[in-house]
Amino acid sequence: MKRHWARFVGGMLAALTALLAFPLAAGASSNSQRCDIRDFGAVSRDESADTDAIQQAVDQCSGTGGTVLVPAGDWSTGTVRLGSNMTFLIDDGAVLSLHPDIALFPETIIRQDEGTASVRAALLADGVTGLRIDGAGRIEGNGEAFWDEDFYDSGLRRPTLPRPGPVIELANCRDTHLSGITMTNMPAYAVRFHACSDVSATGITIRNDPRSPNTDGIQIRDTSNMRISDVDIRTGDDAIVLKSGQRPVDNILVEDSYLESDDAALKFGTSSHVGVTNSVFRNLQIRNSRYGIAIFMIDGGMHQNNVFENIDIETGGRHLRQFPIFIDIDRRDADRSLGRVVDTVFRDMTIMTGGASLIAGNPEAPIEGLSLQNITISVSGPIDLATASSKPRGNIEIEGQRGSVDYSSANAHFALGHIRGLSLNDIAIVEQHGASTRADMFMQDVLYDLPLDSDGVSR
């Protein structure tokens, strides 16, 4: 059975058509200097860590435009601090493994706008310019070496032991680009861009067990002017997650990629005190994920002027309840102000799911300006939403607060609540196995943004 919903509003969200400029990674430097880690004492396939040799090679090449070469072979490392104006090349056939001794990953302080933070990274760059991390080689995270014994059978939600992460931490960087490499079995976050600008990640492959804890693929925090393209991320936690703690995440382009996650394939995460703005997510294939696209606003910021287009979503994974599209405005704490979600477009999308989409503001802070255009939803094996668990809050430690609303049990393919300025155009719902007991749409406190006729009267 196939049904169409159509209600069109023209002229909305014109600001989203502005031309966005995105950084493109340059090729390796033409400088002929090559700092081969073997020349500094690194030995493939021995039991010792090669950290010192790698760091010496980096120190030799940093600032010269030269290339640090991690050649074919098996190498082991702890924390290495990278520098400006250099290329760190993990060559084809090279496997750079995280050494299982956590002492080789000391807590390192990085700068933030209002203070500092500590990380246990494997490759760390703080305040650099002109850095390339490149190659066809692989970084092996040895994840389980840093978790509690028999973690998957322990019943623990998260490891209790210290572990490296993010494995690649790029903080306060400019003109910094990551390309080509493969990352497997991460012990925590794979890559984080933290307070960076004019950066990119292209051609990256990330493979983690779907059960693996806190193994975000790429985390974008307080970063602007970034392009992610041609990545293939399959992981246990969010594939790509954007968070803004002290400054907006602004002018981000994510395109031409495959995403798969036991949690959210694409997520505006909690801890968004400022917001994600002026960003485009397009030409994406999302598979086997609890959330296709999840937008959480729980810390009082504002997500504004964001477009999601030409995206193919198929939900799945271990969780009974699945959300192809999820938006929620709520509070982390009872005394926190409610945030805003403003001018958001979803268009040219296909969805296959047994779950349902939940898009809800709050009576005190409705979603403002929401456009759903040309979306086809194929429903296969629908679950009983009335018996499903309550709405997710983006973090297992966050509890419901005063004024919280929850329409997750609404028996409809789309649950829409507290919206000002809704535009619907060509929404098709296809039930794979005939008619179900679900309604097409549940709406609570939703106002359409109605067009005006020539006399200035809404119609």
TrEMBL record:
Keywords annotated in UniProt: Glycosidase, Hydrolase
GO biological process entries: carbohydrate metabolic process
Hydrolase among keywords: yes
Top-level taxon: Bacteria
InterPro entries: GH28_Enzymes (IPR051801), Glyco_hydro_28 (IPR000743), PbH1 (IPR006626), Pectin_lyas_fold (IPR012334), Pectin_lyase_fold/virulence (IPR011050)
Pfam families xref list: Glyco_hydro_28
Gene3D superfamilies associated with the record: Single-stranded right-handed beta-helix, Pectin lyase-like (2.160.20.10)
Gene Ontology MF annotations: polygalacturonase activity
Family: Belongs to the glycosyl hydrolase 28 family.
Annotated protein name in UniProt: Uncharacterized protein
